[in-house]
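Just scan my protein:

——
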Amino acid sequence: MLFRPFSLQPSPIFLAAPPKRILLVCTQRIGDVLLATPLARSLKSAWPAARLDFLVLPGTQGVLEGNPDVSEVLAFPQRASWPEKLAQLAKIWRRYDLALAAIPSDRARIFAWAAAAKTVGFTTNDEASWLKRHLLNISVPFDNLNTHTVSMGLQLAEALGIPAISQVQPPRVSAEQWNRRLAQLNLQGVSHYAVIHPYPKYRYKMWDSDKWVCLISWLRQQNIEVILTGSADPEENAYVQKIAGEVREGCRNLVGQLSLAETAELLHLARLFVGPDTAVTHLAASSGIPTIALFGPSNPVKWGPWPADWSAKSSPWPTVGSGQRGNVTLIQGQGDCVPCLLEGCDRHLDSASRCLQDIEVSQVILTASTLLNLEQPIRRHFPEPNKPTD
């Protein structure tokens, strides 16, 4: 059997036989799990007879619902007692022929090491201890700045010597289930609509709520239905309820009513999506619909939405500047500090980001008008809201 020992550089790994069971570990947020699906697609394409399981954190497994490449999703809580941690390791101990740690964390590497004798994963320059290095047979240097999350994950496929497939796979539900949900939500027959996801969880990624109101009102005046999406989080619900209540033309608020897979189904037939740097924006991009992403302090090279038909290995986005790639238009706030890669102007999660707040409603409307093939955007009814002073 040919099997290469640990290496600091990616190199082909040779197995005695095609793996029958593969574990992909991605114990991070929803967006990270979604953007690991191209790696799963690459693995299944190379070894179609293999069983591929995902190990994730609770609350993120919904983004893998209906994924044709995934056999089982294991959700292990991050905070666990030692007996619980040992039980987690025992559940996966040597059940797999190959395990991949899709993020550079001790947790992911330990799970991969426990699951299989053959492991592939990431390490960073400051992670050179013997233990961290020897949890992996093949180690790929992790770049957290200049490589897109999708591109980074696909380097694990290249280290295995298999073709890298860059397609992000959104979750799906069956046609029967979705038709039943459409009836329950009173959405049957609604076909000319845009989806707006205004809440990004952290304030430093937020656009102004009054600008969302202006945008939604403009869309409604174009005879386009607007559907608002979001989680059941109380703060998110209150934020979106406030926006919906201020739209005089009316809109449909589905916050807290859709699973991630149902949100993906809703997006699939939408004429337009607009949202900030959030997992749902990545879902919209992967669905192939016209998508507008509002970016401020976040690094678009690493986190810009991956267009549905983007086949290049490199990131679709430069560090600075707005632009369109495939079905995605990224609008980046302006300023010499953009992107600062920090948590807002005050450097904490609840901080505002002036670069985002300064994105004009008229710029988003003009972009939306082009994507919707409207002859001329209506702007005169919507003066720019007063800019915040905080």
The first strand starts at residue 21 and ends at 25.
